[in-house]
Model the fold of this input.
Amino acid sequence: MSTGLIIALVVIGAVLVVAVAALMALRYGRSHGRGDLRKRFGPEYDRAVTRHDGDTKAAERDLARRVARHGDLRIEPLDPDLQERFQARWAAAQERFVDAPREALSEADHLLGEAAEARGFPDSGHYDEQLAALSVHHARHVQGYRHVHRLAHASEHAPGYAPEQPATAGHGTAGDGVSGNGAATEEMRTAMIEARELFQDLVGAGAVGSGTKGSRVK
Done:
């Protein structure tokens, strides 16, 4: 066997080894990245996949873009007086829900936007951007804000609006005494309860600073 042939075989072998290693690294990176996104976003990961019609790669690109854009967001502490005002307004909204659920829902929507803005998230006038940033740092509770916002704005644009209810036995049927308005009110109540989790994240005990500047949360 000639020296030239031996050298050629060695080179080909080395190229194959490098190619296999690169392929394994790429596959590991994709798998590891997917695991990181699923761990970070929790239920929001599954919602992203659903919104992308089951296209996992498209959902992961969406989530990765959110992290790239908002992962280094500086989270600001709340002034204690502002915290008290936010909490008082939320308590008032909950009490108001009994007599005026739509108005209470709208107030909850505004409060979440204002509280998020006060903590350093994008301003409430840019809902989609604010929601994306919140999903990066409060992925497990952001759905409550999404639910409240959707219902509040549907109510504003259509005064006679009643959220659509699934036709399941025992819910909203003529025989069980639950009217359409009753079903709509129940959905709004559920949304308020869900949203309260995010509100507590933004305004709860851990939201007040201790004399230090805001921190970057990654």
Summary: The chain is about 70% helix and 0% strand.
